[in-house]
Structures are given as C-alpha cells and as structure tokens.
Automatic annotation (TrEMBL):
One of its GO terms (biological process) is glycerol metabolic process. Residues 7-69 form the HTH iclR-type domain. CDD domains: HTH_ARSR. One of its GO terms (molecular function) is DNA binding. The keyword Transcription applies. This is Glycerol operon regulatory protein. The lineage of its organism: Bacteria, Bacillati, Actinomycetota, Actinomycetes, Kitasatosporales. Pfam families: HTH_IclR, IclR_C. Residues 70-254 form the IclR-ED domain. Signal peptide: none annotated. The keyword Cell membrane does not apply. May be an activator protein for the gylABX operon.
Amino acid sequence: MWVRMTVQSVQRAARILRELATSGPRLGVTDLAERIGVSKPTAHALLRTLEAEGLVRQEKETSKYLLGPALLRLGNSYLETQELRSRSVAWADTLAERTGEAVWVAVLDDRRHVLVVHHAFRHGSGVQILELGASIPWNTCALGKAVVAFLPQSEQKDLLAGELARLTGQSVVDPTALAEQLARTQLIGYALEDQESALGEAGIASPVFDRHGDPTGAIGIVGPVERLLTDADQQRHAVAVREVATQLSRELGAGRGVAWRISD
C-alpha cells in the first residue's frame, strides 16, 4: 500500500512538471490541482516538496508556480550522457559548413515529440537563436519523420493513430498522407519539412542508427524554404545530409548493412 502511494506521488509530481513545461509557464495551485486531478491541499503539498528540491519555484508577485533551476542541471546532465549528441558534434559542424545551413540533431522524446539535443549554427553572419532543448511534434518536422519512418510498423501505426499536431496551415495531420511520406522516406533515405513547424522554414533530415540497427535519432538541416527546397538545392542538401547521417551511424556502431536501406 505504501509503495503504491509513493509511486502515485511520483507520478503526480511528474505530471505537475509536465504541465508547467507544456501549459505554463505560470500556473496556480488550483489550476494544477484541476489538471492532474487531485485536491488543492494535495497539489500544494506536492508543489512544496518540488520547491524544496529546486524543481519548481513560486513567483512572489502572483503566487503562481514556474519550473525551477534544478531542472536545468538535470537537463545538462542528460545532454552530457546522450551518446548521439556527443558523437554528432563534429559531424554537425561538418554538415553546417558543407550546406551553409543550421544543423539540428534530435531524438524521439516521448514518442510524440522530438527533442533537439544539439544545434550547430549556420556559418556566417546574422542573428541566430539556439534551439537546444526544443521539443517539436514528430509529424511537423523532418527530424521526426526521419526517425519514425524506420521504426517498427506497429510503432508507426500507433503514432499515426494518435494525436497529430498542427502548428501551421502546412502541418500534415492526415494519417494516410503521413504514411505515404514515411514510406517515401524509407525509400530515399531522407525526410522533408515544408513550413510545417514555422512559416517560411523548411528542413531536410536523415535517420541515424545505433549498433543494433535501430534508429536512435536524426540529423538534418533547417533554414528558409527558398534556400532548401528549390529542386537543385534540395537534391544537393539531401545528399549531404544522408552522407553525414551514414557516417554518424557507422561511428555509433551501425554496420554497413544499415546503409543500405538508404538508396537513391
């Protein structure tokens, strides 16, 4: 009984953190209690515990809660132990230099989103915003499609049957259309994004495989549509992305047989 109650408390605390991360940034005790389905006193007790650990903090002016600084330390620790990120740094720089575009490396986070674990800036001038830690619905970005295309069919079906996010009018939310895109990605070895996460932005990404031959993440370029998706640029960039993804996969231990499933 005690163990069950402890597990339930941990689950509720985790839900509070997720709510603040996705629905926040500021939520009151009443809001959080309603969202996780507990009484206000229970929510308050959970928040006090999380606050004592630095995982949330209370804003004095509003008395509402926000995520705390300890989460940043945990996030940094996760990135430091993320093998794909550590192995991809040099390859991402190579790809950024070769294409002249920004490079993102991502992993599937909760089977619904991809998490950007490395971001190599585009070479050259201009203001650029670091997107490290960004969480993006899988169906709205090339990175997500590149990974999902090489998952087992049962997992693909679950994802296609689940909630499909719409971030722009270009986001593809039709399961049949997405299934066709995944099949094509398997055939050509890269996935495309055309203004599906942000208007004016595009992406080209290829999967990265681990030593077991499973997709461990993806690497790709992001940038303006006019620089990525014209016929000539798309082909040139796609070749570069696939080649770097292949080399990164081999560094992670993937055999030559994995490469491949990627062919022209």
